[in-house]
Amino acid sequence: MGTNSEKVRWGILGVAAIAVRRVIPAMQRGQRCEIAAIASRDRTKAEEAARNLGIPKAYGSYDELLADPDIDAVYNPLPNHLHVPWSIRAAEAGKHVLCEKPIGLTADEARRLLETRDRTGVKIAEAFMVRCHPRWLRVRELIAAGRIGQLRAIHIALGYFNRDPQNVRNIANYGGGALLDLGCYAVTLSRFLFREEPLRVSGLVERDPQLGTDRLTSAIVEFPSGRSLFTCSTQLSYFQSMELHGATGTMQLDKLINPPTDAPSRIVIYDGPERFNTDPVVEAIPVCNQFTIQSDLFSKAVLEDGEVPVPLEDSVRNMAAIDAIFRSAASGNWETP
Fold it and tell me: How many domains, the chain?
């Protein structure tokens, strides 16, 4: 591979809003990332994004970018149904791949990607940037240290309102809907904080009658040492909140997915039974950008042949839990991932 010893040369597949507005500018601030090219099926869009972001090369097709020998790794923010097919093509072209969440539409898709990784020998990771944020690493550390006693229950609520039929999040065939867009975060964070895999799940799904996507989805995820309850929606007011309930205390977190990048993020801790009668303990996590951290960690794994932040084995298990939630909603029964 043609990397110099300090930076990975990245190509971006597509001009998705999350890539152009958030991820690429954050990657460009990384110590180990060089954004070398961007591709779109519309060359004009690629050229416009390249001009606005100061990216040297623009391509009018994804295949052209994958054929560029000067690209070491690609970031794939395409619609959900294109995550696995284009990540496989990138891997077969010898490129390392950081693919947006959810890694695919099903656990079987994720397994196909895992097989491709093992066959091609490239690095592939799911872009769950939350798992790289110092706040979540600190929360996990506090739980392990017994700060709120044994963790027993997690309550999560995630939502926004978007009924635009043209938006990829609202197209059923593209993997739209609340569970794949938002609920995947609830599942990965619950698994991350419990440090366990789900035993069984129960799901409840309400679908939009016109769009066919799940617009209001709730689940109970049972773990060996407790349970996680979450609701996610694409048709409610914007919210992101979590409560972690332990035997001796509670932690509260807001802005789970999109913490501020210009202010500290917070962990609010209530001790004991006097929760509402005493001031909480507040831990502030210094200002950072989780997308910059994620891309630097992935680039470090490429440069030093180390482990990626969220390996595909983890992604397969996350998708298996999501599959089980959909199955449970259809069957009306508890389902095992």
Answer: 2
pLDDT tens column, 212-233: 999 999 999 999 999 999 999 9
Residues 193, 198, 199, 200, Cα dihedral to 10°: 130
How deeply is 61 buried, as exposed, middle or buried, from its count of CB atoms within 10 A (0-12, 13-18, 19+)? middle
d(CA 147, CA 286): 20
Q: Is 7 a catalytic residue?
A: no
In a domain, 93, yes or no: yes
Shared domain for 124 and 271, answered yes or no, is no
| Structure tokens given for 70 | 């000067």
Catalytic residue among 7, 45, 95, 101: 101
**Do 167 and 109 fall into the same domain?**
no
Nearest residue to 284 via CA among 269, 306, 273, 271: 269
Looking at the fold, whether 59 and 166 belong to one and the same domain comes out as no
Over residues 263-275, the pLDDT tens digits come to 999 999 999 776 6
**In the predicted structure, residue 123 carries a pLDDT above the cut 70:** yes
Sign of CA dihedral 241, 246, 251, 256: negative
The verdict on pTM exceeding 0.85 is yes
Q: Are residues 147 and 274 in the same domain?
A: yes
